[in-house]
Amino acid sequence: MRRALTALLAAPLAMAAFPLAAQAEPDPALHITSVALNKTSVAVSGLNTAPVTVTVKGVFDTGSSTDEKVPVNVILERTGGSGQASVLFSTNLVRNTQSGTWTGPLQVPSTANGTFKVTGVMTGPFFPPNPPMTDPTPYAGPSITVTGTHQPKITAVVTPKVVPFNQPYSIRWAVTDAQTGKPYGSRVRVALKTNSGCVEYFGPGYTHLTDTNGVVTNSYPGVSITPITCLLLPGNPAENGWLSFVPARPAVVSAAPSKASAPVGTIVPVNGSVRGGPYKCPVHLQRLYGASQWRTVGSGAVRASGRFTLNAQPAYKGLIPYRVHFPACRPYVAGVSKTFSIRGA
Fold first, then answer.
1. How much is the average pLDDT of 208-217?
2. Is the separation of the CB atoms in 297 and 310 below 8 Å?
């Protein structure tokens, strides 16, 4: 369950995970006796949502006078189909102390196309400012079949295509109907976020409106890190669709030998760095053969510090040109260091 929750909440932030409590357990104060949905199937199109009434019977008792004000959220996980959403959360279900139930809507988006099953209940609201300290209380509940049509497709064009460090850039986002390839014909509410904002979304707020063609262009400041950017389609309580990525970055590679000259056959460490610190990305030491052919003579990987060490070994007497090649890795495009030489003695 925790893995599923992490997957949903981190989906806009593809390289991160929602920080659920380590080794958490279900809330011992929450006991569920039943979960009911008022529908077994819904059809939903485009950017709309279909409301499904959720009723939870159970007890939440910590001994506090505020217990009756604590809402719950019901969690449904995908068991079939192929929409972008893999987990659904109900809205904050309100407690009725007289009936001993929590009741409220589950807003089902078209991106939930497929079948979902109730798998747990969590104390709300969704989600408090701090990560939840407990896991969901498992509950094998009913299923619902969703027929989602005209699901949204999100695209992005970054300018410049490769974003230099500390230089501003812009992204032209577009939200269209994946089924027709055309815009929906109305202005679409979207949330344009960066970095942690791509995960820490608590709907249904939005930051921008597209034009009637589904397009919105946003400018972003230059930064020294690899910025995660995303467009979220606001939902309640989580996003109904998203696109997140890190704009392409240049591979700024520097490298220098520890010695300018060494006897033939001697190992000469070559130390260098790649800007941005692309941890575990490969780097290759290349030697010039003839007038223009570079061949790899050693390989390694970038350390967590952003630095690397490769070993050169002069094969003959005279000046031998080398360089370090960085192949495309994650958001970094391929690049090479300046050529340097080691004299074989």
1. 97
2. no
Q: Is 196 helix (H, G, I), strand (E, B) or coil?
A: helix
Pairing between β-strand 268-274 and β-strand 253-257 as defined by DSSP bridges = antiparallel
Which H or E run contains 9? helix 2-10
Angle at 277 between CA 274 and CA 282, to 5 degrees: 65
Secondary structure class of 112 (helix, strand, coil): helix
Question: At residue 236, what are phi and psi to the nearest 5 degrees?
Answer: -135, 105
Q: How far apart are CA 198 and CA 208, in angstroms?
A: 15
Structure tokens belonging to residue 251: 């591979």
Burial label for 221, CB within 10 Å (0-12, 13-18, 19+), is exposed
pTM of the model: 0.86
- Give the CB-side neighbour count of residue 160, counting CA atoms within 13 A: 10
Q: Can you tell me the distance from the alpha carbon of 195 to that of 210, in angstroms, rounded to the nearest whole number?
A: 21
In this structure, which amino acid lies at residue 168? P
Q: What's residue 7's pLDDT?
A: 43
Could you report the per-residue pLDDT of 198-209, keeping only the tens digit for each? 887 766 778 999
Dig out the tokens for 204 from the structure. Answer: 């249904």
